[in-house]
């Protein structure tokens, strides 16, 4: 199954035989035309949401959902400045750190709850290929989320 896009990409969604609900959150593969413009963003982390919290703490940046929202909004702003939108993203890598309050497991559900508000919706139906991974830590203390994306436009 493929989905149309404003640019001539071919997005291959997971076949119907893949029944896991998370399989609808990202594409199985995306074909990119040779003449397409490409924008690759460096890793984007969250902004401080609580100036009163200790510097470098999870409280300063918020939980996984809050950090995911911050990161997606920053990515959207960067894409817009360069003439792209969230629907042009073809590849996403999301690194998640376990919230110290979550028994050593990253909050993948908190990430997906925010992600699903921006990708695969009626307003923005495109989904990128995606990798999510739990890592031990990110360079800035307090970060639970860092994302890198590639956007394509023809």
Automatic annotation (TrEMBL):
UniProt signal peptide: none
Record GO terms (molecular function): deaminase activity
Organism this protein belongs to: Pseudomonas syringae
Protein's name in the database: Translation initiation inhibitor
InterPro entries: RutC-like_sf, YjgF/YER057c/UK114
Gene Ontology CC, one term: cytosol
Top-level taxonomic group: Bacteria
